[in-house]
What does this fold into?
Amino acid sequence: MGFVQVRFARPTDRLAEVVAFYAEGLGLPGAGCHLEFTSHVDGSPGPAPTEENLLVLYFGDAAGMAEVVERLGAAGHAPVGLENPYWSANGALGFADPDGWRVVLVPQPVFAATG
It folds into this structure.
């Protein structure tokens, strides 16, 4: 497709908590994606739209995912249910960030990249 960078952006009323979840809990600082969280003096437009709005992170192996799951658990984040049974069938776990947005952790890519 030719993409060289992907950016995910959304507002939040819990900026410090959200940054801690993604940077410390998930370990995303310095990763190959750009997550932008903004805040406004008048507040954000509201909570996560649905439980099917997902950020999906694929790991190279189950051990890498287990390390992140352990770190999230130590920070008080427990797995949450995911609506689509596809995810559990592929060994994935879901977590809700402080705003309720779902992040899905998958132990390995479930599709082959095509070039």
